[in-house]
Design a protein that fits this description.
This protein is an alpha/beta fold. The chain has a single domain (3-264), classed as Rossmann fold (3-Layer(aba) Sandwich), CATH 3.40.50.150. It is 29% helix and 29% strand. The strands form four sheets. It has a seven-stranded mixed beta sheet, with helices on both faces. The chain has a two-stranded antiparallel sheet with strand order 6-7. α5 (83-95) links the parallel β2 (75-80) and β3. The longest helix is centred in the N-terminal third of the chain and has 20 residues, at 3-22. The mean pLDDT is 96. One of its GO terms (biological process) is methylation.
């Protein structure tokens, strides 16, 4: 199976997830509609005041983070491979009377579908694992950034993706640096483990070295790489809630989250 077929399998799975996710407690659309932000402390602290900034949100699902930034005064465009997700994002945008733009395409094809350049390119939590190669991804990010703009990613740590979570207890099964696709098929979804959906997914694990090197080779300057024990999401087995309401391993054996900020130098 080639990567185009793998992408199509993933697109169909995400299309099937959208309606389940939109009515789940995990995404809490009722309170989101009332004004609750979907953004977490890591990205809020890293991006700061985004009022008046243009933001490209990669792999936006059904647009909650995109719309949260729009509520903060940013001019936002969200991209996702799922047409069902983009349809819900557009509906929410109209309902909330915001001015975000949404485009349905494979994230690697963003440059062919969007001509604008942005102050900020943003992606978060469970995105790069759907991509087989980060070099074209990083190249696209550089193409979409204005001179002096920055890219920011907050993502689950690659060590956390070395485990097979379809078995109990989770077993370390996948390589930290693994070129081969990882195929998983299981019932349910992270937003609703009791749903009857059958998720069929192809993913790839990317080391921190691959993330950093791909961005550097695309002409971006790394401002920081941070690793954190605590995740805002309780999506891995055996996590405990800390005093800040975040989730972490009881033994803190490895980090669950990393952040990278990279600048497109204005002198280039």
């Amino acid at each position: 199976m080639n990567n185009t077929e793998k992408f199509e399998t993933n697109r169909k799975t995400w299309n099937n997830k959208v309606a389940i996710h939109a009515r789940s407690d995990f995404y809490d659309l009722a309170n989101f509609r009332k004004g609750r932000t979907s953004l977490n402390k890591y990205e809020l602290e890293a991006l700061g005041d985004v009022s008046g900034k243009s933001i490209l949100h990669l792999q936006c699902h059904f647009g909650q983070d995109t719309l949260s930034f729009a509520r903060m005064g940013a001019k936002c465009t969200g991209v996702d491979i799922s047409d069902e997700g983009i349809n819900v994002a557009k509906q929410l945008n109209r309902e909330l009377k915001l001015d975000a733009n949404f485009v349905c395409c494979n994230v690697l094809d963003t440059s062919e579908n969007i001509s604008e350049k942005f102050d900020i390119v943003f992606t978060s939590y469970g995105t790069i694992g759907w991509l087989p190669d980060l070099k074209p991804w990083a190249k696209m990010i550089s193409e979409k950034l204005k001179q002096g703009g920055f890219f920011y990613i907050v993502e689950f740590h690659p060590i956390a993706w070395m485990f097979d979570y379809t078995v109990s207890p989770p077993a370390m099964k996948y390589g930290y640096q693994q070129d081969e696709a990882i195929y998983e098929e299981y019932e349910g979804t992270y937003a609703d483990a009791n749903s009857k959906i059958i998720s069929k997914e192809y993913g790839w694990n990317h080391s921190l070295g691959e993330v950093i090197t791909s961005l550097c080779e695309a002409g971006l300057k790394i401002e920081f790489l941070k690793e954190h024990d605590a995740s805002p999401y309780d999506i891995f087995p055996g996590l405990v809630k800390n005093t800040e309401g975040m989730f972490e391993l009881a033994n803190k054996m490895y980090p669950l989250i990393f952040e990278v900020k990279a600048i497109k130098n204005s002198t280039e």
